[in-house]
Structure to design on (157 residues):
């Protein structure tokens, strides 16, 4: 991950990813961007809904990431949903190829942030949850919330 002394500026997070997938591991990848994309990201004009990462010919790519066109851009503005290249080490790509060949695994972008001046994306290696898993997670959160509420009420007395 990022170094201790670097400040992270989180641009966008994919909150639905942890609800829909069991995340088994995370990877940090650099993001290859055009000039106006960086400015739009700094304005938090990005959307991770329905985006995913994939491997093709030994390289990693991010699909369906929507970065809105820069408001003060000109005719050279970028295409909002273009495929963007990810920067990973070859060893990480080899590990991911092996994992992604197993049934049910996918690479899901969890968040996009700036580490120093560099745009980074945190990828999660996830396996899709079934409907009953999602219901169970919601029930556990609700039960935990009720317990915490009861403890607070008890402490007030």
């Amino acid at each position: 991950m990022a170094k201790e002394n670097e400040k992270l500026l989180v641009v966008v997070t994919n909150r639905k990813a942890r609800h829909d997938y069991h995340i088994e591991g995370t990877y940090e990848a650099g993001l290859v961007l055009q000039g106006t994309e960086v400015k739009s990201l700094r304005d938090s004009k990005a959307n991770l809904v329905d985006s995913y990462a994939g491997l093709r010919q030994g390289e990693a790519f991010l699909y369906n990431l929507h970065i809105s066109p820069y408001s003060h851009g000109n005719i050279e503005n970028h295409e909002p949903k273009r495929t963007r290249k990810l920067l990973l080490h070859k060893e990480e790509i080899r590990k991911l190829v092996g994992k992604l060949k197993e049934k049910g695994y996918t690479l899901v972008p969890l968040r996009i942030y700036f580490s120093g001046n560099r745009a980074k994306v945190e990828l999660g290696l996830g396996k899709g949850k079934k409907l009953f898993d999602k219901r169970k997670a919601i029930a556990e959160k609700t039960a935990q919330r009720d317990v915490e509420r009861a403890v607070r009420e008890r402490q007030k007395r």
DSSP finds four helices and nine strands in the chain. The longest helix spans residues 131-156.
